[in-house]
Each structure stands twice: as C-alpha cells, then as structure tokens.
C-alpha cells in the first residue's frame, strides 16, 4: 500500500510540481520535497517553493546544481537570451538539456538516503512544449536505469503525464488547492507569482488551461 510509503517530490514551486506535491501528500504516508538551485533566471522560484513547503509542513532539501547553469546557456539560465517558442522543429529557448535526467537522478540519490522508494515529478507529455525529457518513454527508461545503477526498486510517478493544463487545474481542484495553486505558484518565465506576466509561453498555457477548466466546470453545474 502506497499509504505506508515515503516519496520524494521534485518541487520547483510551479503549478505542476505543486499539484504533484499535494497529490503525493494524499497518496503517500510521508513526503519530502527536493528543489534544485541551478542559478535559474528567477530566485523567486526557490523562495516560492520554500514558502509552500513550509506552509504545508513538508521537509525540503535545496540542492545546489550550479553546474547545470555552467553547461547550458539558455533562456532560463541567462538573462540575455530571449524566451521564445521552438520554430521549425527546434526546441524552445527555455529547454534546459538534461535537466530532468539530472533532477530525477539526484532525487533518487536523495531518496536512497532518506529511505524513500518513490519519486514524483510533474512532467507531462500532453503539454510538454516539445521537451524530450518530459516524455513517458524517457521517464520509464530512466526508471530502469536508476534502479540498475543503484540496485534499488524505485518507482517514478508522473501524475500529470497524460493531463492537459485544464485537467491539471481539475486535479488541483479535486485536491482542494485550486486557489493556492492559482495565487501562490510561480510558472511565469518573467518570475511573476500567480497569474504571471500573461504573455510568456508558460503563462499563456497556464491561463488557457484555467479558463478551459472553469468553463467546463460551469457547464457541468
């Protein structure tokens, strides 16, 4: 039974990972959050994650991942690179190569230290902006690799894998945290908490999903 188990949630303070944090709190007996500081564009991301973890009483580890910043100049690690969607089959400028590979690998190392067998991440193939490390096939492959590398039986959970943004809002509502996620999480590439700047690709996706969910909720009542 998962209710007796412990999980480590990869937690950035954004909409998806915060929804996953509450999903994990409902699913597992004990939850630990791990947040990665890779000198990302906005320090608010980490402050936001810290505030939510503290409020929910979840033990949080913040790991220094500066090397990721050194290796990958992109719009999330450099202020002088414009945020733009991928064109002609190219990846968006916000793609950080290897990020989920590294995050989940380090989360597994932490899990082995704190006695957890479950890893939770908010990746989604439905709204994945073309990021290859958000695909289900990648996560399943990495799960096998991590277990072989560490001689463990970790299970990686991806509660949002097949949900679009409106369904992610629906899950937040079912978990009783719709308002918290709408007002307290940081998804915006410009570093604005809550509804964000309204213009960057992350804000547009988030807002469209919210409006679609609220609309469908009204029509079913």
UniProtKB/TrEMBL annotation:
It catalyses: 7-carboxy-7-carbaguanine + NH4(+) + 2 ATP = 7-cyano-7-carbaguanine + 2 AMP + 2 diphosphate + 2 H(+). Binds 1 zinc ion per subunit. Zn(2+) binds at residues 188, 197, 200, 203. Its EC number is 6.3.4.20. The keyword ATP-binding applies. It comes from the Bacteria. NCBIfam families: 7-cyano-7-deazaguanine synthase QueC (TIGR00364). Its cofactor is Zn(2+). Pathway: Purine metabolism; 7-cyano-7-deazaguanine biosynthesis. This is 7-cyano-7-deazaguanine synthase. Catalyzes the ATP-dependent conversion of 7-carboxy-7-deazaguanine (CDG) to 7-cyano-7-deazaguanine (preQ(0)). Gene3D superfamilies: HUPs. Belongs to the QueC family. It comes from Pallidibacillus pasinlerensis. ATP binds at residues 11-21. CDD domains: QueC-like. Keywords: ATP-binding, Ligase, Metal-binding, Nucleotide-binding, Queuosine biosynthesis, Zinc. Homodimer. It is an enzyme of class 6 (ligase).
């Amino acid at each position: 039974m998962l209710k007796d188990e412990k999980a480590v949630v990869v937690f950035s303070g954004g909409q998806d990972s915060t929804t996953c944090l509450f999903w994990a709190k409902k699913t597992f007996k004990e939850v630990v959050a791990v947040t990665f500081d890779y000198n990302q564009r906005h320090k608010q991301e980490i402050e936001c994650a810290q505030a939510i973890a503290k409020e929910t009483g979840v033990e949080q580890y913040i790991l220094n991942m500066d090397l990721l910043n050194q290796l990958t100049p992109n719009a999330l690690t450099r202020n002088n690179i414009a945020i733009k969607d991928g064109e002609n089959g190219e990846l968006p400028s916000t793609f950080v190569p290897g990020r989920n590979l590294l995050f989940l690998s380090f989360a597994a190392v932490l899990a082995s230290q704190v006695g957890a067998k479950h890893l939770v991440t908010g990746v989604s193939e439905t709204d994945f902006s073309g990021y290859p490390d958000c695909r289900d096939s990648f996560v399943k492959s990495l799960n096998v690799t991590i277990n072989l590398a560490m001689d463990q039986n970790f299970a990686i959970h991806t509660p949002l894998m097949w949900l679009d943004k409106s369904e992610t809002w629906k899950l937040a509502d079912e978990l009783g945290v719709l308002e918290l996620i709408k007002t307290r999480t940081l998804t915006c590439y410009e570093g604005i908490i809550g509804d964000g700047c309204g213009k960057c690709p992350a804000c547009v996706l988030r807002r469209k999903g919210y409006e679609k969910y609220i609309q469908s909720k009204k029509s079913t009542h």
